[in-house]
Design a protein that fits this description.
The protein has 188 residues and is mainly α. It has one domain (2-129, 149-187): Exocyst complex component Exo70 (Monooxygenase). Helices cover 68% and strands 0% of the residues. It has eight helices and no strands. It has helices at residues 2-12, 20-40, 45-77, 92-104, 108-116, 135-147, 156-176, 182-187. It is elongated. The model is unreliable at 121-150 (pLDDT under 50). This is Exocyst subunit Exo70 family protein.
Length: 188
């Protein structure tokens, strides 16, 4: 019972991106234990109630993980600075976001299934390659992507990763404008 209380407390806590990896670990562990919980508490009314509470805690943890992941994108967009990063080096935000996304790939199946359960995935689109200049090629590239049978076509997480990197790119372009030296604006 205390395990359920802890899971519920975590799901009700603030949506901080730093906690997402632990929330996903909890969700995966709860998912792995679900068959055992069903077998262990299958015989009476109390067991049925406990199984229902367990599923509700799992649902809340999943919703918390999804909302925390989406909050990460908002945190990137709202990161503002009034001073340029010295020397035009790689901005710490870039390192943070890329390391965060790399860590999330360990939970790709879980995160993808949680994101697929929500409707906002279909509104995200994967932008065409920036190297493409000819508009006819953009249409061809988009239709080739839509008609491809690659598993990436179906991953909600892929679309969200593209969206996050687009927000990061826009944020960094704004930060680059802080440099007085025009050459640093292009390197940064």
């Amino acid at each position: 019972m205390q395990l359920l209380n802890f899971g519920e407390a975590v799901s009700l806590g603030p949506r901080q991106p730093e906690k997402l990896l632990r929330i996903l670990e909890m969700y995966e562990l709860a998912s792995e234990l679900l068959p055992e919980i069903d077998v262990l508490f299958s015989d009476n009314q109390l067991g049925s109630s406990l199984r229902g509470e367990y599923r509700e805690v799992m649902r809340r943890l999943g919703e918390c993980a999804r909302a925390t992941f989406l909050e990460f994108k908002s945190a990137i967009a709202s990161d503002v600075s009034s001073h340029p990063f010295p020397g035009g080096a790689v901005h710490p935000l870039t390192n943070y976001v890329m390391n965060y996304l790399m860590a999330l790939t360990d939970f790709s199946q879980t995160l993808d299934s949680l994101l697929m359960e929500h409707d906002d995935v279909e509104y995200l689109s994967i932008p065409p390659s920036p190297d493409v200049i000819n508009p006819a090629m953009v249409v061809e590239e988009e239709s080739a992507y839509e008609n491809s049978s690659s598993p990436e076509k179906f991953l909600a997480m892929t679309k969200h990763f593209y969206s996050i990197t687009s927000v990061l790119e826009a944020n960094l372009e704004e930060k680059a404008k802080l440099y007085r030296d025009v050459s640093l604006r292009h390197i940064f």
